[in-house]
Amino acid sequence: MIEFAYPWLFFLLVLPVVVRLIAPHHLEERASLQAPFFQRLADITGQTPQKGATTPQRLLVQRLVLGFAWLLIVTALAKPEWVGEPIVQNKSARDLMIAVDLSGSMETLDFVDENGQPQGRLDGVKAILADFAKNRDGDRLGLILFGTAPYLQVPFTADLDVFVELLGESAVGMAGSRTNFGDAIGLAIKLFKKSSVKDRVLIVLTDGNDTGSKVPPIEAARIARAFNIKIHTIAIGLPEGDEQTALDVDTLQAVAQVNGGQFFRAESQSDLIQAHEEISRLEPRKYETIAYSPKSQLFYYPLGLVALLYMILHSTLSLRALSRQGAES
Fold it and tell me: At 123, is the secondary structure helix, strand, or coil?
């Protein structure tokens, strides 16, 4: 359909009428020659002499073309636009960052695969996260890998295939042997600062005890709360081991509580599946619908028609004048 960006400009259509009524007529003085035999010339030509000014009259076609040209010019000024059918796009309304522990204890074979064979904790996590990601259409996912230090493996992306592929490249020990998930929360905060999405979720999966982060996990969680970041924590494996590797359940529970998130225990792969199903229920896919109609400018059509009309009019009048001169000669 056709719409006008400035429809109020159609009031200009009455401008020529107003100018004709208000503005004085154009007067032009011309030199004349007094002939003593003027009356004889008048008798020969059969013309009746008149006194005073004369007003040249336009042809009817000239008046019609002039009026139609003004209509076209005003139409162009009103900026006609062709508005197409509305296009609806679904934009991500949530950024979801997943932080995965890659410390040495994540290779413990206390998970089982779909065939009932022993499986390392990290392999089980990767399998569950891959299925989790495939059902997050509409969200942007990111991945942080942490151990002694945190690293960004996947920046926020809506390309879930890329997320799954880069997740599969992670390996135990590639980020160091320790479990500093407080620093992983800090890195997530920096990444969320650059996000314009208001709904922000962080999922932390770890099987260890944070003993070396620059910012303790609970303190990092409080900072995350100030940036409207909800944190879900998943404790993997059994709370056993030495001071460095023992699972710190209390800290993980406290981190989740500070930010209004949930704490989950995953002592087996089935527990991990249930944890991700519950997170999917708590954090359903979220879309932000954007609709717009494409517009194409049409103002050059009436302007082009004006130019064409004047070319035809002037060509016609010139040919008419030439034919008259030929007939008189």
Answer: helix
Torsion angle, alpha carbons of 49, 50, 52, 56, to 10? -90
Q: Is the pLDDT of residue 89 over 70?
A: no
Please identify which residue in the block is written with the tokens 């249930």: 274
Closest CA to 136 of 261, 290, 283, 264: 283
SS3 5: coil
Average pLDDT, the chain: 83
**Against a cut of 0.70, is the pTM above it?**
no
Q: Which helix (H) or strand (E) holds 306?
A: helix 300-328
Q: What is the pLDDT of residue 26?
A: 67
* pLDDT score, position 288: 59
Q: Which amino acid is at 197?
A: V
Residues 233, 282: Cα–Cα separation, whole Å: 13
The one-letter code for the residue type at 175 is: A
Q: Where are the domains of the chain?
A: 2-46+57-85+294-328, 89-290
* pLDDT one-digit tens code per residue, 165-180: 999 999 998 888 888 8
Four-residue CA torsion sign, 22, 28, 34, 35: negative
DSSP 78-92: T-EEEE---EEEEEE
Where would I find the H helices in 176-244?
181-193, 217-226
Tell the CATH superfamily of the 89-290 domain.
von Willebrand factor, type A domain (3.40.50.410)
**Cα angle at 187 between 182 and 189, to 5 degrees?**
95
Name the most confidently modeled range: 213-227, 244-258, 265-279.
213-227
In sequence order, which residues have a C-beta less than 8 Å from that of residue 283 and are 6 or more positions away?
Answer: 94, 96, 201, 232
